[in-house]
Amino acid sequence: MTSRPCAFLLSLLLLPGLMSLCLGCLEPTVDLQQGQVRGRCVVQPHSELRNYYAFEGIPYARPPVGERRFKDPEEPESWHGIKNATTAGSICIQKNLLTQEVTGNEDCLFINVYTAHPSTSWVGSKYPVVVWIHPGAFSMGWGHLDVLRPDDMIRHGLVVVSFNYRLGVLGFLNTEDSQAPGNAGLKDAVMALKWVKNNIAAFGGDPEKVTIVGEGAGGAIVHYLLLAPQLTDGLIHGAVSMSGSALAPWAMAERPREHAAALRAQLATLCPDTDDDSIVPCLRSVDAAELVRSQETASPPELALRFWRSRFLPSVEAPGAGPHPLLRADPTQLMRERRFLKVPYITGFTSAEGIMVVSLAQLIASPAGWTDVDRRLADVFRSEMPPGLRLELPVRQMRHFYLGESDLRADDPEAVRGFVQMCTDVFVAVPTVSAARLMAHGGATVYVYEFAHDGHAPWLKTTLYNASHVPGVAHGDDLAYLFRHAQPGQPPVAEPHDEAAVRNKRVRHLANFAKTANPTPRLFGKSKWRVYTPSEESYLKISASFTAHDHVLGERINFWRQLAKCQTAEACELNPVVRVEQGLVKGRRQESVANCTYFSWQGIPYAKPPLGSLRFKDAVAPEPWEGVRDALQDGSNCPQFSGDSAVGDEDCLFVNVHAPRRPSWLADSFPVMVWVHGGGFVSGSGDASGLGPDYLICEDIIFVSLNYRLGVLGFLYLEAASPGNVGLKDQVFAERWVQANIAAFGGDPGSITLAGESAGSASVHLQMLSPMTHGLFQRAIGQSGAGLNPWAIQTTPVQTALNLAAALNCSAGHDYAAVVECLRGAPADALVLAAENVAPTQVDRDRMISFTFVPTPDYPVEGVETFLPAPVNELVTNNSHHAVPYLTGFNTRESILQLLFTNFRDPVIAALVDATWKLTILPDLRVSSNSSQINEALQAMRGFFMNGESLSNDTFLQFMDMLTDIGFAEGIYKSVRHMAVAAKAPIHLYSFAIDDALNFLKIIQNITDVPGAAHADDMGYLFRIVFLHDVPANSSAALGRKRMVKMWANYVKTGDPTPTYDPLIGVRWRPYTNDTRNYLDITSQLEAKTDLNEERVNFWEQFYRTYANETY
């Protein structure tokens, strides 16, 4: 402040009377970044209020005129001298609601500051800042506080800021390209907040304590700003949305480019050129008043029935359309993905928001209109529903819930009340609570309120809406309890004491929130405003008394959530369309064999096809597409060997999403299971035709499956020329896609379980060891596979690759880059066929299970992400596992799988195998072939498992147990032991022993005479498998399936397969530790046990310590 003598006296005397005298007469001058401004003193007639200063009409951005029309705001220019800020600047051009005349100016980006402390140089402290964002349906209103005055906020120690932002077509035209990228009005708000950050200290405000507050469209803007952390981080420290959210049906435009084209057609005489590229240049030349007049006169057909007729609203911005996108995805998706600013947030609604809707529909002035609305109820409300409910809404149920069987008549108070409540919920309350729930799920601290104080003189309800006879608080009438109402240029009107008391308490809540992030920091009991949680749904009911309650909206919100579940065919869309980062995808509705409806989106590309120069390289992001892409069937399988030929296509990097219902912001997010298929890293796919998710889907989880590159195309390793593991990196790339997009399908990106079987299980284990996967999943399930299994890691990958090159005439000595370039030019089929017949040594050909091209530790290359930075055994021993819960186990006779390749029951073959353990068994052990103790080690194994006897029918099952351990169980034993030592997260261990009618491998291969559960036999108890006949519902196999599905679904939801007692399960599956060694024995009767295969585990521990010097 420039009045130094007065400040000097204050600093000496500190006399309140003298302070008031000095402050009551000055026109203060403040220094800003752009120059100096002079404000005015607001003298209060009421003793309980204090004088303050108003600085109005300060430009915070350049005038958005000429070439700047429709574009993002630009920083304001500086000025010389002292700018007069004693009167408000022009309001943004708009149509007056009452007169229907166009008023205002395009040069309107002004900001206003109201403060009792225009400089901190003498006060010694900074004050919290409240930034007010005005309402007006995105098409009208202004920022300067003349009718609504901030007197009480200032009295409670707040600095208040307000501003104008562009409205209607000038603020929200979106052509989905760089000419008009959209949301200019929202970006004006960001620019205003930047101005506050840079300048508010000059007015006594604290730039580190800025709370944004808005009502109606202003409340929705507050929410939108929280959904743009890339632009608003550091600018906002708290937020309050009153009667508005980004989920409200009136707060977002769909197909914004079509609205731009419709406006151009309306202005055809001024814009005769029909070229799409000419839309914006022409509209930029049209007089602003003509644009405003035309923006409401050519509504698209779907707006004809709407109570809200604006079509230029916030909208999702097209990728690449502008340099600083504000709304990058659908609001629901952003919240589900937790891509929002996690600052304390207050949101709420009034008890009868719908009064305004009734008024705007002219039902108050024209009672005959009620009959027309009743007759057209279905059409009217379908047009008002957000996209997720528009076709699935059973309007008859809605009408019955709110209106009963009564006709909708103006002279029926109960019918009017029900209709008002219906409108309240549809337009404001349900979207508000749904947004609160999503924000709370995403980690924000949220407070919810219902304003129900129907006071003495509700100005809007009585004067504007003409609805004084309708009970409840109308939209906007709660503003009188935050601001003082006054005629422009006049002091606030006097009011009854009880009205002032409600306002005083509400303003105090806001001041507390702005100062401490808690509206009631020192209160307890019924008046304590409790944090909203999805379980309790606490809220504060504001009336003459302020009382805390649970379950906001009660049965009303439950009604809408039930509608959103889409449990019947009539309530669901046949082909739901979802927006992912690359564009729109159309799915289909399916009926599960478990009797529930679900939705599938299949064959969605998560990466660019790895063709040509991309072969053997890490995956890259897919190209976006125009229009709606069909996702109605599985994509191509990755190239693989089948029978005696190669099948599949290199363009194979697809994901499939199966969800229990169509996405809706009314419903909670679903936990997600991401499934990695098995197949030895050389075969398989994520197709639902192989493993159908029917049973898991009916447990309310989302199931995602994926393809990844296999064999030589996924695991070629030649040091820097091909560092390896692109197949595993494909899996990671798909998981990143899931993180970015699953919210669009109703999934929770913060609740993802990575699961797999066989090679998929080994993949899961390897991902738990990889630095690339931190944060991508919160739980893991590994069934019958670990990274320590002998078939899961290449031992001589370079030699294998060179052998392949020689077979394809691609040898180039040690010029590995030339080798890879030659292989890059070979047909995919030739690569697959050659790889099938290539092995580095005869020993590898003789192994029990041998897959040539599988994972290996990465070769480090600068600029290329490393999946496996060290040998797996080293990573396991060093406890490099991520700290995520892990459920893992194996089937009792995994080795039955090997009977498909070698008939150990044939006496000739048994004799040959028995005589060549050094060739057939040794390669699968982590014992060096150069060890002097090889024969001793092999004899130790024969002695333990077979009592030193030869392989015969008498020792066949013991031999199979040994192979089960070597190929599968031992690697799982060791991994679990080391994870338990680190004790980073719970481990659940199991043994699967069911031998029944759904044992997949044994039945399709007709090996049912060998007891025990074979490799992959558990798949029939989780998935619908087309090769298996279904079983009677009352059969033991069906019971086993129910139990498996329930436990796996529980784990996906909670990280605990038996979180509560369930008579279906009947036992508590307790976590494994090295002290308790708990596991679940999954047989026809579930049984909780300890010390799984104790003697065998102890044998392998001693074996590897003795013959491989390993820490177990």
Automatic annotation (TrEMBL):
Q: Where is the signal peptide?
A: 1-24
Read off the InterPro entries from this record.
AB_hydrolase_fold (IPR029058), CarbesteraseB (IPR002018), Carboxylesterase_B_AS (IPR019826), Type-B_Carboxylest/Lipase (IPR050309)
Q: Name one Pfam family in it.
A: COesterase
Q: Which PROSITE patterns match?
A: CARBOXYLESTERASE_B_1
The record's GO molecular-function terms, alphabetically, read:
carboxylic ester hydrolase activity
Q: Which UniProt keywords apply?
A: Glycoprotein, Hydrolase, Serine esterase, Signal
Report the residue ranges that make up the Carboxylesterase type B domain in this protein.
27-560, 575-1100
Which Gene3D superfamilies does the record cross-reference, listed alphabetically?
alpha/beta hydrolase
Q: Which family does it belong to?
A: Belongs to the type-B carboxylesterase/lipase family.
Q: What name does the UniProt record give this protein?
A: Carboxylesterase type B domain-containing protein
Q: What is the lineage of its organism?
A: Eukaryota, Metazoa, Ecdysozoa, Arthropoda, Hexapoda
